[in-house]
Structure formats: structure tokens, C-alpha cells
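Hi R.,

Here's the chain you asked about this morning:
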Amino acid sequence: MSKDKIIERKRLKEIIQKLKSQGKRIVFTNGCFDIIHIGHIRCLIGAKRQGDILIVGLNTDSSVSCIKPGRPIIPQGQRAEVLSTIEVVDYITLFDEDTPYELIKEIQPDVLVKGGDWDIKDVVGADIVKEVHTVPFVEGVSTTEIIRRIQNLIF
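And the predicted structure, written out as C-alpha cells:
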């Protein structure tokens, strides 16, 4: 069942240690994933191509609201469940901090991946991992833009 992909941090750390002992390459990406769109999907697919196991760090509702006032639109449980149905995603764990730095430090992935709107030198946790990659940004596609377009239709 896809909900089995949603794992607590402590358990995830144990799973990753086991996978690494089997020679698996662990890739990490993170985000709010508030309204899933093609940019998210392409980023996840691109991230998965960098290794064997893709871990997604998902901002909790309180974390999202700190960095994006008025959000999230979709509650964290639903966002996690939607992510869990995406084939390339192996595990999802939630984090409550503003950034995933502590989570990255805990789980020690081999690779970090972010969307192309990030400069590699600005990727949180880049000082912890061996590799950082970006996936090409899909111009004009963002959750904020989708929300704006919906508001324009309604108002």
C-alpha cells in the first residue's frame, strides 16, 4: 500500500542505514508539494534518476505556514498521501522546521536534488552530502501561479 511509504524520521534513519549497507544510493529532495503539478513530477523523476532510493522530505503544515503565509492549501496528511502514490517516490517523511537541514544531517543521503529555480550553492544541506543536482525548472508552473489563476477565475 502506498501509505506504507510515509515513515517517521527515526524509522527512516534505520531503513536508510540498511539500504546503504546494501550499496543503495540514497537521493533526497524536499518541498511543500501543496498542489502537485508537472514541475513537481519532473523534479521527482529527475531526482530518482540520480540514485536507487528517493526520499522526499515534506514540510508539515506549520512549517509551510512559516515560509508561505496563508498556506498550505492541502493539509499535510493529504499531501503525504498524494506523494505516496507517485511511483518514483520510495519514502516520505515530514519535517517541522523551516528547512530540512537537521533531517538531512540525520539521514545522511548521498545526493540532494532541487528544482532548477535553486542555485546549487544555496541548496540547504549541500555541505553535508557528496553531490547536489538541480532539475530544469518548468517556466510558468508553480503552486502560487495555479492559486493566482484560480483566484482570477473566481473573483
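The CA atoms of residues 2 and 87 lie 9 Å apart.

Let me know if you need anything else.
M.
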